[in-house]
Write the C-alpha cells for this entry.
Amino acid sequence: MSLVNTEAQPDLLVVQDFSLRFRGAPSDQINRVSFSVGSGKTLCIVGESGCGKSVTSLAMMGLLPAGAAQINSGKMLFEGQAMNLADPKAMRKIRGSRMTMIFQEPMSSLNPVFRIGDQIVEAVKAHSDATDAQARDRAVAMLQRVGIPAPAKRMRDYPHQLSGGMRQRVMIAMALVNDPALLIADEPTTALDVTIQAQILELIRDLQAETGMGTIMITHDLGVVAEIADTVAVMYAGTVVETGPAERIFNDPQHPYTIGLMSSIPQLTGARGRLSTVPGMVPTARNMPAGCRFSTRCPFARPVCTTEPPLVEIGDGHQAACHFAPLEIKLKESA
Amino acid sequence: MLSFILRRVVIAIPTIILISIFVFTLQKLLPGDPVLAMAGEERDPQVLEFLREKYRLNDPIPVQYFTWIGNALRGDLGISLRTNQPVLELIAQKLPVTIQLAAMAMIFALLIGIPAGIFSAVKKGTIVDYIANVVALSGLSIPNFWLGIMLILLVSVKWKLLPASGYVPLSEDPVRSITVMIMPAFVLGTALAATLMRHTRSAMLGVLNSDYVRTARAKGLVERRVILKHAFRNALTPIVTLTALLFGELIAGAVLTEQIFTIPGFGKLVVDAVFNRDYAVVQGIVLVTAVGFIFMNLLADVAYVLLNPRLRKQ
C-alpha cells in the first residue's frame, strides 16, 4: 500500500495499518488506519463524532488510559524512528517535546489552581535542564508569540482570569514552547466564537510557517479543512475511507461517504432546497457491518461490499477505500 | 483575605448564640434534679432550697440563661456542682489531653486515609483498589470499643509492646507521652481514615478524568507528578471540608476511646458530668466543643480560598 507522500523527503509521521479495540468491544474501534504528514504540512483528519479521529490522535500521543484499549496492529514512524505505542516511557519522552497536542476545550484544559506561567514553565522543565529563570524567559517569549498582550504580567494569571480564546492561545504556547516537530490539534476551535476561531487558525498557520512543524488537525468542520489542509484523511466508523491532497478531496471526492459529506456543506449560491444529508446512522462497535463499514448507508452498495474494500490509488496520492473507486468508471462497468 | 476572615467570624457569632441557647435548654429539659444529685442522702427540704438558691436555680429560665452566658463571656463558666472547681479550670486541665489524642488520631487518619484513597483511585478496578475498599469498609464497620479491647489484648497483654492505659503529659516526658497515646489514637483514627479514604478516592476519580489532567500528561510529565500535583491539588477541596467536619466525630469518638483506655481527658469529664447532672460542666464542655467545631470550619473556609484561586478577590 503506498502512502500519501507528495514530497521527496521522508514523512515526519507515518502511521500504518493501525488497529485498536476497546476492552470488551466486539469489533476493532479503529480498523487498519494509515496516514502520514510531512514537516511544515497540515493533515486534516475529518469525520463525524465517534468516527475515531480523537481516539486515533490520543493513541498516537500515548494518552489513552492504560488498559482501556488494546492495539492490535500498526506501525508508527516518527522522525524516522519506529515508536512503540505500548511503551509508556518512550512515549512520554516525545510527548510534550517533539510531539505535542492541544485540545477542544480550552475552558477546562488548563489546571484551574495553578498560574498559567507556572504551567508553561513546567512543560519546559519536564523536557530540559533549563533553570527557572531560563524557563520563565522562554514561557514569556512564547506567550508573546501567540499574541498575548503584556505576557510577563499574564504569567501570574490563573486560567479563570482569561477568555476562552486567550486560554487556547495559552494552550498553544504550552504546546509549542518546546519547539515540537509535530502539533496535533484536536478540534482546537470548536468551542470558540467564529471570529476567535479564525484568529486561532491563523495563529496556528503562522506559527507553522515560522517553525516548519507538521500539523495534524482533527476536525469535523469542512470549512476549517478547506482553509488549512494540505492533505486530508476522511474517517468513517474507525476506518480511513479516503485520503489525498485537499483540493482533490474537495473537487473530486471518490468515496460515496466523502461525496455525501461534501454535498452536505450548505452553499450560498445556487438553488435553495433541503440540505443534503447522509441517510442512516453511524454503526456502533456492536453492529459493525462486515466488509465495508459504510455499506449499510451507501447508495451504491452491492453484494461485493460485504468484503473489505482495498485502498485504491486513483492518482497523485489520492486513495479511496471502495470496491468501486474510481467511482464513475467502475459504476458504469458494473451497471 | 483579612476581610474575608472577619466576615466569616461575624457569621459565626449567631451560630454560637444559637448553640448556647440550645445547649442550655436541652439541659433544662433533661429529667433529674441536680440538687438531689448533689445532696446525696440528704433530703432536708431546707438544705435543698438553700442549694437551689445558691446556684440560682429558682430564677426564671431566661434569667438563668443570661446570667450563664454573661458570665461565660467574661470567662466564667461557673462552678462544678460536684467538685466545686471552676468549670473553666476543669476544662483547661482536660483539654490538652484530648487535643493530643485528637491530633494524633487525625495524623493517623490523614497518613492512612489520603494515600490509600489516592492509590485506590489510581488503581481503580484492580485488586489493590478492591483490597483498599474492603479494609476501609472494615475500618468503618468495626466499632471503636471492640478494636480498642482487641488491641489491648494483643499488643499490651500478649505481646507487651505498648501500655494498655494511662496518660503522661507531653510536657513531662514527650516520648513516653506519645508512646502511651499511640494505641488510643490509632483506634480513634481508623474510622476517620476509612471515611477519608473513601472521599479521597471519589474526589480523585472525579479529577483524574478531567481535561487538565490529560493536558498534564500531554506535557510529558511523569505520572507521579500528574497525580500528586495536578490531580491531588484539585481533589483537596472536598478533603479539607471533610477533615473539618470530622472534628465533631473525633470529639465524639474521643469520649468512647478515653473510657476504654482510661485516659483522663475531655471525654471522661463529659461522661462523669452527665451522669452526675453537673449542669455547669456539661454546658461549658458543649460550648467549648461547639466553638472549636466552628473554628475548625472557619479554618476550612480559609483553606478553600487558599486552595482555589477562583474564590480569591482579584
Remarks:
- The longest helix of chain B spans residues 223-260.
- The mean pLDDT of chain B is 88.
